[in-house]
Structures are given as C-alpha cells and as structure tokens.
Amino acid sequence: MDTDALILPDIFKNSLAEQLAAEKKYLKVLEKISGSLMTDEFKSAISPSETDIESHISRLSGSMAALKQKSAAKPSVIDDELLSMLKAHSGKGQSILNDILILHIIKLIFSIKVSRYESLHRMASALGYQEYAMLLEQCSKDDQNTIAYLNQIEQNVMYPEVKK
Known about the structure:
7 helices; Ferritin-like metal-binding protein YciE; DUF892_YciF-like; Ferritin-like; Ferritin-like_SF
C-alpha cells in the first residue's frame, strides 16, 4: 500500500485551509494600505476587484466546504512573514519610494501565491478533484495577471516618476 497516497489528501486539505486564511489576511491588509499609497494606479491594482482575492476566497471556501475541511486558524509561516513585511512598510507616509518598496513586497506575495496555487492545482488533479483543480488553476492565472499589471505600473508609472 502506498502511504504517500494516503497522506496527499491531508496535505491538500491543510494547504487549502492555510491559503484561505492567508487570502483573508491579504484582503484586509491590502485594503488598509491602499489608503497610504501615493500612486493612484497602484491603489487601483491592489483593490479587491483587480486582484480577484474575493473570488479566491469564495473558491477556496466552496472547495473546503465540499471536502468537509475546517478553516485554518492562521496562514502559513511564510504568509505571516510576508504580512509582517508589508505592515512594516505601510503607514510610513506617502512617497513614491515607499510605494516601490510596498510594490516589491506585493509582487513577492503574488509570486508565492501563483506557486502555491499551481501546487494545489497539481495536488487536486492527482487526487482526481478535477472541479477544484480548475478553480485553483484559475486562481493561479488571476494572480499571474495581477503580477503582469503590477509590472506595467512599475515600468510605466513608478520608475519614470522616480527618474524625474
């Protein structure tokens, strides 16, 4: 008997729960820091409607309910550290340099989210959870689009502003 096959469903469910907890915290923090940003395009880019975080929360919640998995009390250690980094740079007044520092952290967050959603997608596929696999793949694509949008703002708005 393959004991790894018995463990994968538990890893998958735990990872889903941690990701849901992380998404909820990211939603709150991004809403909070957007008021301290100087760049209007950046504020818009990290809004819930642009980042699709609310959709991700809904997809994760639905998947967990169907799997009868309880929510994790807190996100992973990595997410906690990223949230701490983000909070450390927010509320320091409005400046383009602070926006750039926050942008770098947010891009790191979304890059890690893409990686995590891709892993969750592969686990769901391996477990035969095709419906969840499609939802998780969409979350990854949403976050890739957010990164692309942030890259455009970085290149076309923020860096030219600093160059002046």
